[in-house]
Amino acid sequence: MLSTIDVKKFNTLIEINALINSNYTDVRELLTRILDSATRLCEGEASSLLLVNRKNGELYFELALGIKGVEVKKYIIKSGEGIAGWVALHNKSIIVNDVENDKRHLTAISREIGYPVETMIAVPMRIKDECLGVIELINKKNKRYFSQDDLEWLEIFANQAALTIQNVRSFERARDEIQLLQEQLTVDQGYHTLIAKSSLMLEKLELIDRLAKTDSSVLITGESGVGKELFAEQIHLRSPRSQAPFVRVNCAALPEGLLESELFGHVKGAFTSALATRRGRFEAADGGTIFLDEIGDLSLALQAKLLRVIQQKTFEKVGSDVSVTVDVRILAATNKNIENMVERGAFRNDLYYRLNVLPVYIPPLRQRPEDIPELAAFFLKKCMRKVNKQFEGFSDQAMEALLSYSWPGNVRELENCVERACVIGQNHRIQPEDLFLKQNGVSSPEEELGSRNLKRAMNIFKAHFIKKVLEENKWNQTETAKVLDIQRTYLSRLLRELDITNPKE
Fold first, then answer.
1. How confident is the model over 33-61, as a mean pLDDT?
2. What is the pTM of this model?
3. What integer pLDDT is reported at residue 380 of this predicted model?
4. Which of 23, 80, 207, 439 has its CA 20 to 30 A from that of 310?
5. Would you tell me how many other CB atoms lie within 10 Å of the CB of residue 175?
6. CA-to-CA dists, residue 491 to 154, 247, 366, 487, 495, angstroms
């Protein structure tokens, strides 16, 4: 006959096992539930789930529940070091009911975080005799000792956690292979992956959906590196012309004489090196879309010829008086202030109005910090495949640095930063020092980073951090406030101010 506590444990095991074998996608929450259940049912005060870094055998804290959970996560445990390190090295479970006198115990960590450890139980998470990590419970409630029964139940929970980790690693490998194939197909076709999570960018994509259905010209503006070309690609891919050519021209890359020939083509003998008749980019894009990047660098003479193409769909090749007719949709982009150029006479106002039928402004990265975690994760995965290295992501401190930096070079600078960190990083997670970002997140006093934008970036980080702690504590606000070392009423105020809500409510 099972006792009441046995029934509770069995019901919890059945519930978690059902989640493991379902299409449950929030793996971190599932591991948190396993750890929380084990801690509660074995009556521990605190607990941790540590994973083994397969490159060097070190253990890092993936999850830590309890009053000092956030603080303990900054530590790395070497192979064989401490009680958890001993368990991982020997792949054996252990009960230590007199931690103070156990030579394996890392007293330095307990002392630094101010949390005395009296009793401990630790078990390996195994798959086919391989230790993936360790689950440890600290200080059984009411000053009692952990028992053999606790150990046996914790081993069952550890097996469930190991199965979860194995499932997610298998899923991630399959997903990454599929994503790699999709990305390779996209690259082979000449397109890029567009990552967007912020409300600002999602609104832009909704606008792109509407613009794509028309044939009107689109002028895409925004700072250098924000991804104007990627939005031009999306307009084409979502349009009725998606199966036709998408032709790109960087108007700033060629001198005026060569650019005219590049755009409109030339006939044999039109100039000294014209040894054969050549078609231009507009002819190549017939039936499809042409993307004119850095349109603000066009000379006034070329602007006049471009205006005629927009109005009449015709042009003449260099050295020819025969008109060529094309059916091309024009997308243009610039990081310059075109309206100011029009006022100065550097850009034709009639061409500006023709191009600016459907304007799209892409905001800089510092105004949409919600996109930074997604972009950084995408670039890290991309670079890991390139350099054949593995990271578990970014440390909290590294993500804070990414979120508080101003990104004057926008997405292009972020990609370069992550790639550099991936190449030089030596830890299981990318650390702040790997990023080489300039102090305080600003590159110079003249940088255009207003206090409003910085405050917004910091609020995004705070919201991200608080959500993470809430998830680790099952959205229990009282426990979360204890972990954050703040008053429960102050946490409630923060949740309102930062618009944090439980997704399950």
1. 87
2. 0.61
3. 93
4. 207
5. 11
6. 32, 53, 26, 6, 6
Evaluated on CA atoms 223, 227, 233, 237, the torsion sign reads negative
Nearest residue to 329 (alpha-carbon basis) of 288, 268, 386, 369:
288
DSSP secondary structure code for residue 257 in this structure: H
Mean pLDDT check: name the lowest of 162-176, 178-192, 260-274, 384-398. 178-192
The tokens for 273 are: 């090196």
Contacts of 133 (CB under 8 A, 6+ apart): 49, 50, 51, 52, 59, 62, 88, 124, 125, 161, 162, 165
Are residues 243 and 203 part of one domain?
yes
- The torsion angles phi and psi of 309, rounded to 5 degrees, stand at -60, -45
Whether 297 contacts 341, CB under 8 Å: no
What's the confidence (pLDDT) of residue 218?
A: 95
Q: Which letter does DSSP use for residue 77 in this model?
A: E
* Number of domains forming the structure of the chain: 3
Asked whether the predicted pLDDT for residue 429 surpasses 70, the reply is yes
Residue 504 lies in a domain: no
For residues 307 and 333, give the distance between their C-alpha atoms in angstroms, rounded to a whole number: 15
CB-CB contact of 118 with 99 (8 Å): yes
Most confident of the ranges 166-170, 296-300, 447-451: 296-300
Is there a domain that residue 11 lies in? Answer: yes
Cα–Cα distance measured from residue 20 to residue 446, given in angstroms and rounded to the nearest whole number: 52
CB atoms within 10 A of CB 275: 8
User: Per-residue pLDDT tens for 336-377?
Assistant: 999 999 999 999 999 999 999 899 999 999 989 999 999 999
For residues 220 and 354, state if they share a domain: yes
Cα distances from 225 to residues 38, 64, 222, 286, 494, in angstroms, run 48, 38, 8, 28, 34
Residues 132/48, Cβ–Cβ less than 8 Å: no
pLDDT > 80? residue 382? yes
On whether both 217 and 299 belong to a single domain, the answer is: yes
- Whichever domain contains 122, its CATH number is 3.30.450.40
Q: Are residues 359 and 371 in the same domain?
A: no
Verify that 16 and 149 share a domain, yes or no.
yes
CATH of the domain at 339: 3.40.50.300
Query: Chain-wide mean pLDDT for the chain?
Result: 84
Asked whether residue 33 is assigned to any structural domain, the reply reads: yes
Report pLDDT digits (tens) over 165-213.
Answer: 777 767 666 655 555 555 554 544 567 788 888 888 999 999 999 999 9
DSSP H or E segment with residue 171: helix 148-188
In this structure, the answer to whether residues 347 and 424 fall within a common structural domain is no
